[in-house]
């Protein structure tokens, strides 16, 4: 049941079996997503004092 591909975690009365290969894939997806978010951020447009915003409240 418990080999090098899984890890048991105990929280209170609950025991979780963690699939380490799945966790590695998930972390890799998250790293790729974070790097994409940094590259795709739109430029922040600054308004001159002479320009008015496109709408007023």
Explain what you see.
This protein has 57 residues and is an alpha+beta fold. It has a domain at 6-39. It contains 1 helix and 2 strands. It has one helix at 20-40; strands at residues 6-11, 14-19. 0% of the residues are buried. Residues 27-57 are annotated as: Disordered.
Question: What key attributes describe this structure?
Answer:
57 residues; alpha+beta; two-stranded antiparallel ribbon; 1 helix; 21% strand
Set down the secondary structure blueprint.
Layout: E1 6-11, E2 14-19, H1 20-40
Antiparallel strand pairs: 1-2
Region (Disordered): 27-57
Short overview:
The chain has 57 residues and is α+β, with helices and mostly antiparallel strands.
In quaternary terms, these chains amount to single chain
- The strand line-up of the biggest sheet is 1-2
Number of helices: 1
Strand count, sense and barrel status of the largest sheet are: 2 strands, antiparallel
Number of strands: 2
Radius of gyration: 23 Å
Mean pLDDT: 79
Class from helix and strand fractions: alpha+beta
Q: Tell me the overall shape.
A: elongated
What is the CA-CA span between the terminal residues?
63 Å
Order of helices and strands: EEH
Helix content: 25-40%
Q: What proportion of the residues form beta strands (DSSP E)?
A: 15-25%
**In terms of per-residue confidence, which ranges show pLDDT below 50 for 5 or more consecutive residues?**
none
